[in-house]
Amino acid sequence: MESLRIGCFGICKLPSNLSESPLNSGVVGRPCFALWRSRRGSASLLLRRRSIADNNEVEFHSVRDKYPTEEESSNLEDSFRVGLQLFPRYGEKEVVDSEANLNVCEKEVVDSNANRASAKEEETKGIDVEEKPTTRVTRNIVFVTAEVAPYSKTGGLGDVCGSLPVALAARGHRVMVVSPRYVHGDPSDVVFSGALDLDCHIKIPCFGGLQEVAFFHEYREGVDWVFVDHPSYHRPGNPYGDSYGAFSDNQFRFTVLCHAACEAPLVLLLGGFTYGEKCLFLVNDWHAGLVPVLLAAKYRPHGVYKDARSIIVIHNLAHQGVEPAETYKNLGLPLEWYGALEWVFPTWARTHALDTGEAVNVLKGAIVTSDRILTVSQGYSWEITTVEGGNGLNGLLSSRKSILNGIVNGIDVAEWNPASDEHIPFRYSIDDISGKVQCKTALQKELGLAVRPDCPMIGFIGRLDFQKGVDLILSAIPELMQDDIQFIMLGSGDRQFENWMRALESTYKDKFRGWVGFSVPVSHRITAGCDILLMPSRFEPCGLNQLYAMRYGTVPVVHCTGGLKDTVENFHPYAEEGSSQGTGWTFSPLSKDSMLAALRLAVGTYREHKSSWEGLIKSGMEKDYTWDKAATKYEQVIEWAFCDSPYVQ
Length: 649
Ligand SMILES: Nc1ncnc2c1ncn2[C@@H]1O[C@H](COP(=O)(O)OP(=O)(O)O[C@H]2O[C@H](CO)[C@@H](O)[C@H](O)[C@H]2O)[C@@H](O)[C@H]1O
Ligand SMILES: OC[C@H]1O[C@H](O[C@H]2[C@H](O)[C@@H](O)[C@@H](O[C@H]3[C@H](O)[C@@H](O)[C@@H](O)O[C@@H]3CO)O[C@@H]2CO)[C@H](O)[C@@H](O)[C@@H]1O
Known about the structure:
Layout: E1 2-6, E2 10-14, E3 33-36, E4 47-52, E5 58-62, H1 70-75, E6 82-85, H2 104-125, E7 140-144, H3 156-170, E8 174-180, E9 196-206, E10 209-220, E11 223-229, E12 241-242, E13 245-246, H4 250-267, E14 279-284, H5 290-299, E15 309-314, E16 322-324, H6 338-341, E17 342-344, E18 358-361, H7 362-369, E19 372-375, H8 378-383, H9 394-399, E20 404-406, H10 434-447, E21 457-464, H11 470-480, E22 486-493, H12 495-507, E23 512-516, H13 520-529, E24 532-535, H14 545-551, E25 555-559, H15 562-567, E26 585-587, H16 592-608, H17 610-622, H18 627-643
Parallel strand pairs: 7-8, 7-14, 8-11, 14-15, 15-19, 19-20, 21-22, 21-24, 22-23, 24-25, 25-26
Antiparallel strand pairs: 1-2, 3-6, 4-5, 9-10, 10-11, 12-13, 16-18, 17-18
The protein binds adenosine-5'-diphosphate-glucose and ligand LY7QZA5B.
Adenosine-5'-diphosphate-glucose (ADQ) binds near residues 156, 461, 492 and 544.
């Protein structure tokens, strides 16, 4: 066994039987100190000494994916356990941890950092340190995303990239968000009116030429919102397509975005300073997936971005940015990097006998070059490592599971607050919920349904997509319409589903409404006015509507999958006092019958067990959905990214 003195914290003895993992070997950076933790506290990282530079700077190889077994663990001395601490010296505090989605060793770092950081100041004020976490290590963080609310949004990706940066900035980080400047030549362009031309034009080498882009910028809520301007972003439609389908040049449009995003921290003077090379790229979905590949293939060979790190955040594995192999030459990457994006479809997926199945897959490129991988719930982070949920990438994702985590999204609690929501006709809160039934009757009036405060009202809001299980709802409607209920669906997307919604509305005029379109105000009114929100998603990386629903006292009935499973607690009618009675219903398997059974249980409870229903509403409304909570966990993952050397040097 090897011993090691680290800074002022004492001797750390390390178990000799732990071998080094090539995946995770790395160097702990300058602000990091290792801290001896007692057996009562648990470990964060197990480290093996590599060299000691001076008293306070120690280099380690981490062996994080080699935790001792329970038996080994109980035989280990206290001092085997070494926690990576970012802040030295402050009084240690017992960790009170409520985070369920990070492994035990890792999650302790989240809280202990925060507690320790604030301990010194707070002790003097006599305030409980656990309630006042602060950030001590601040980073330069660059989000790269195809959509960002309120500037652009087709769904949850836009929401997340509009809110999480603000939460991280509020915690002291310098945060830039890079996204396209989509203008349509109509009044909706007003959203970009606060973003001014930075007068910085660069030329990007890709697609056989030099593509000139400009940058626009707005500083709002502590965040640098940077918009890449290029003629290919100037057209009607949403970020990805229009009524004729997906744009055929999406690979071009998002390749340009990625190159521009890599240049932004180097060339843009924001508030007088660039972000510089030592930044953390948080790249979202396939549209931003070339960023980590570019860092490795284009920049690092020239000594640039050696200190940067990247994290790919997967919001939806169903979209991977797959295009024919011959398009590789357009991406502005060195030829020898083809293997990073190489993708060969299995024989059964090929279209004809001469089809070799060769393609490029941008998301795959991100998965094999990023320093860490995140998804938007812990449940989904496991599902994507399985054959059923991995969309062909499960093998690769499994091979990197030691750096794969899930963090459940937060929600914008200012926008989604029934006590102050400007889109709803009556306001309410957990202390006085009377406005909710008024919202319901107002919605019934608005939709031309019978105004019946005690008739159970079920809602659905979302993209009309196979993912969301819309087909299951539509197939169940004839049976559901036998019951004394009202049903309202809001959504747009697949034409066939839109037409079915219209047809059902004309068949069940007194009970069913299908609102085809995209309307944020209507989505708020449905969330407030309904009693039940239905989400039979086939898969759901996180899901936001169930979170909005619970905050509005609307009880979710959801398929037990991904983030829905992680966020909706199944109702227990006989739960003992003090234990959670649940916040909704989760059904499984995904079938019409099990969905109908869950809905009927919910409706029965609404009608016949009023006090249970009130309990359900309150449990949902009491939950903490703030982005600050999620941001703390992002900070932790960011620190882990900087603990190791770049995954691809
Ligand atoms: N017709 C309409 N009118 C008004 N508003 C509408 C609407 N249709 C959808 N919305 C809004 O769009 C958002 C949808 O968010 P979701 O998280 O449910 O799904 P999405 O699949 O888009 O996102 C992906 O990314 C997010 C973010 O990580 C994950 O939560 C999710 O599981 C994953 O599939 C919500 O804010 C919803 O209210
Ligand atoms: O917020 C909703 C989802 O938005 C994104 O998905 C988009 C996807 O990334 C785009 O590529 C495009 O998807 C098209 C796909 O590329 C094409 O092969 C075909 O299947 O049609 C798709 C639909 O047009 O649009 C998607 C949005 O509709 C984002 O990546 C996801 O995380 C979000 O769930």
